[in-house]
Amino acid sequence: MSETITLAIPSKGRLMEETERRLAAAGYKVARIGGARRYRGEVEGCPEIEIAFLSASEISRELGLGRVHVGVTGLDLIQETVPAWQEKIGRILPLGFGHADVVIAVPELWIDVATMEDLDDVAAGFLQRHGRRLRIATKYWNLTQRFLESHGIALYRIVESLGATEGAPAGGMADVIVDITSTGSTLKANHLKILDDGVILRSEACLVMSRRAPWSDATRRVAETLVDAVAQELNRNPAAEAAGSR
């Protein structure tokens, strides 16, 4: 068994920049191998860690499959894309950036609908009034189904969202949406409102260990040392975490 671990980090954008900044502050400076367009990297002075640059969604999938040992991805992606994620995902360290909420939102014109209980009433009467079930547009099938089940709502149909989910009600493709939002401004621009108890998940970027990866005592020590170092740096410098949340 190889005595190196694979650490997967986002390949571009602010998530990549914040991840590399957090790792560097904890003593793990990341460098790409072969230039900025390559998708492999290393940690200076740590030959036991190999870097893979992937999209956040790819990272969650690879963690679930055990093909990477540690990765940085969104909590929403872990809970949405990894089946039985509690069994496949180990330690989860929130990193204090990439904050966003997965929410259920309805048209502002539904003035009598403010809670999930109200939505249950709407769903129950929708088939009789309109001859079809309530349609919910989302990319988050699993989170949506679990959340609605927890509220006892069964009379609905999920519509797969392939584009801008928030535009689905205005476009006549759905009645309600489940989407991820940071500020809520896009929802407001599309005349949608979040239900009072409609926050499904408060997500952020997390440093995550896989249970399914091929661990040895040595590789587990490497990974735990890495996660501990990042956690200690966040505790020493909470201002950096707060800055990342904005």
UniProtKB/TrEMBL annotation:
It holds the Pfam family HisG. GO terms for cellular component: cytoplasm. CDD domains: PBP2_HisGL3 (cd13593). Coiled coil: none annotated. Keywords: Amino-acid biosynthesis, Glycosyltransferase, Histidine biosynthesis, Transferase. Belongs to the ATP phosphoribosyltransferase family. Short subfamily. NCBIfam families: hisG. Catalyzes the condensation of ATP and 5-phosphoribose 1-diphosphate to form N'-(5'-phosphoribosyl)-ATP (PR-ATP). Has a crucial role in the pathway because the rate of histidine biosynthesis seems to be controlled primarily by regulation of HisG enzymatic activity. This is ATP phosphoribosyltransferase.
